[in-house]
Amino acid sequence: MLRRPVTMLLPRARILTTRTIPVRYAHLTTTSHHYRPLKITANPKMTRSLRDAVRKHNAGAVWTAYHALHENNQLDKLPAEYHSMALQSFRIKKLVAYGPEEMEIIKERLLFIWQHMQQAGYKPDVRDYNHIIDFFGRAGDWDACNKYWKELESKSVSASSTLWSGELTPNVYSYNLMMRAAIMTQQPEQVFVIVNKMKSAGIQPNGFTIDTMIEAHGRLGNVRGADRLFQERYGPKESTQKKAEAAAAVAQQPKKSRFASLLQSYSAPPPAENPDLLGTLIHDSTALDTTKQKQRPSTHTFVALMDAHGRKGNLRGVEYIYNTMVPGYNVKPDLEIYNSMIRWYCEHRNADKARRVFFDLERSGLKPNVVTFNYLFRHEALRERNPRTAETLLDFMTNMYDLRPLQSMYRALIKSYNKRNQEEDADRLFREYTASKQSSSQR
Question: Per its UniProt record, what Gene3D superfamilies does this chain match (predicted)?
Answer without folding.
Answer: Tetratricopeptide repeat domain
